[in-house]
UniProtKB/TrEMBL annotation:
The keyword Cytoplasm applies. GO terms for cellular component: cytoplasm. It holds the Pfam family CofD. InterPro entries: CofD, CofD-like_dom_sf, Gluconeogen_factor. Signal peptide: none annotated. It is found in: Cytoplasm. Keywords: Cytoplasm. The lineage of its organism: Bacteria, Bacillati, Bacillota, Bacilli, Lactobacillales. This is Putative gluconeogenesis factor. GO terms for molecular function: LPPG:FO 2-phospho-L-lactate transferase activity. It comes from the Bacteria. The keyword Cytoplasm applies. One of its GO terms (biological process) is regulation of cell shape. Required for morphogenesis under gluconeogenic growth conditions.
């Protein structure tokens, strides 16, 4: 309707993108996406058991707060002074506070005060002016369990990552040894999305722990959203050595029980030889092999481009390039059904 008629047209609702993952890749991607008029939801792994997050998890029997903290920070409209304090990490000689961040301690305090991690995150989101929705995949800490190709089994994300061994299968349990379930907020976000994004991040420790939750996997199988996987640029030592883009997709589809991935964002840029400081980034092995024809055979559309951000003697995804691609995918999904 026109302004002359005395009222305005209702603006269209923003597109809905759900990002499922963990680690730095998820928060970096969300930082790029927040530039767009989108309704963003982050669903975050709770299997981390290392560092400050692992210590608070063990002592307070709470979900690990580190990845949640980073996502809250990148989606927050709080002042930079507050965010600098929120992300401040105590030094090595700070006694029992060593290595802890202020943000992790705030999340722990609110969780204890409210008796519920989800309510704590929502209150902190309001306090920080967070642009979007932030949910742990489940409201209790999860144990990540891996069976390796050599038949051995390890429990715990930190130990699995440190083993640098080829993984055969992976699953999650709660502390009682039972199969966990996600809350309705998580499931409804997946079912109501235009686009669901998996990654970027470690295949076995950032992505699979989330989709190993049974009702999350079920929601991904039935959602009408376009499911997009952001393939890693580099393989992870021991775990995904010699993996191609399609190898990553096969693992995800196997975990979900069907060919659920609709599109794969794949890097075509070549990592310069002798650029990476292999000692500093000792968890990576070499560049992921690009095989778009094999990706197509899995029922997914390859979306290709030079997506690299070369910095700090390492190679990362360029958050703005990823966000540009995902915004276009979201618009296409809404316009074309």
């Amino acid at each position: 309707m026109s302004e002359e008629q005395g009222y305005f047209e209702t603006p269209p609702a923003p597109g809905k993108i759900v990002v499922i993952g963990g680690g730095t890749g998820q928060s970096v991607l969300l930082c790029g996406l927040r530039r767009y008029p989108l309704d963003l939801t982050a669903i975050i792994t709770v299997a981390d058991d290392g560092g400050s997050s692992g210590t608070l998890r063990d002592y307070l029997r709470m979900v690990p707060p580190g990845d949640i903290r980073n996502v809250l920070a990148v989606l927050s409209n709080a002042s930079q002074d507050f965010l600098d304090l929120f992300q401040y990490r105590f030094s090595n000689d700070a006694g029992f506070l060593a290595h802890h961040t202020i943000g992790n301690l705030m999340i722990a305090a609110l969780a204890e005060k409210n008796g519920d991690i989800s309510e704590a995150i929502q209150k902190l989101s309001t306090m920080m002016g967070v642009q979007g929705h932030v949910y742990p995949v489940v409201n209790e800490p999860l144990n990540l369990i891996a069976r390796f190709k050599d038949g051995t089994v390890l429990r715990g994300e930190a130990e699995i990552t440190a083993a640098h061994k080829a993984i055969d299968s992976i699953w999650v349990e709660n502390t009682a040894g039972n199969s966990p379930l996600a809350d309705s907020d998580v499931i409804n976000a997946i079912l109501g999305a235009d686009v669901v994004v998996l990654g970027p991040g470690s295949l076995y420790t950032s992505i699979l722990p989330n989709i190993s939750v049974p009702n999350v996997a079920a929601a991904l199988r039935v959602t009408q959203a376009k499911i997009v996987y952001i393939s890693n640029i580099m393989t992870q030592k021991g775990e995904t050595d010699d993996f191609s883009d399609s190898d990553h997709v096969k693992v995800i589809n196997r975990q979900l029980g069907e060919q659920a991935i609709d599109a794969v964002i794949m890097n075509t840029g070549k990592v310069p030889e002798d650029y990476i400081d292999w000692q500093r980034w000792n968890e990576i092995s070499h560049q992921v092999k690009s095989d778009p024809d094999e990706v197509r055979k899995l029922g997914a559309v390859p979306i290709m481009g030079d997506l690299m951000d070369l910095r700090d003697d390492g190679v990362f995804h360029d958050a703005n390039k990823l966000a540009d691609l995902l915004y276009q995918i979201e618009e296409d999904a809404r316009n074309n059904g």
